[in-house]
Design goal:
This protein is mostly helical. The chain contains four helices and no strands.
Length: 108
């Protein structure tokens, strides 16, 4: 379970970095060179999604819950905006949904 969660977190970080760097370029007058690591991060994101051993639709659905939670952490850590209790509650609900989707017993 921890390996799956860690892989999801790494995947979410790759996607967020891949989207945040173009944001810095477009909105914060960053260098166009930011697009190179952004492209690499998005390629890593796509590759990391393939490493999960279950059906892709289930992985994508569960990944969404982890993505929301990592994005809330990003809000706090990078954007320096403290999440509200509602942000944290929403992230917790998303993680609970991810756990149900990924770790529920399934018939063979």
């Amino acid at each position: 379970m921890l390996k799956t969660l860690a892989l999801f977190v790494l995947t979410a970080l790759a996607e967020i970095v891949g989207c945040y760097l173009p944001y810095l370029w477009l909105r914060k007058a960053g260098s166009a060179w930011l697009l190179l690591p952004a492209a690499a991060a998005l390629a890593a994101f796509a590759w990391l999604l393939t490493l999960h051993p279950t059906a892709s639709g289930r992985v994508y659905a569960a990944y969404g819950g982890v993505y929301v939670s990592v994005a809330i952490f990003w809000l706090w850590w990078v954007d320096a905006v403290r999440p509200t209790r509602w942000d944290l509650l929403g992230a917790g609900l998303c993680l609970a949904g991810m756990a149900v989707i990924m770790f529920a017993p399934r018939g063979a």
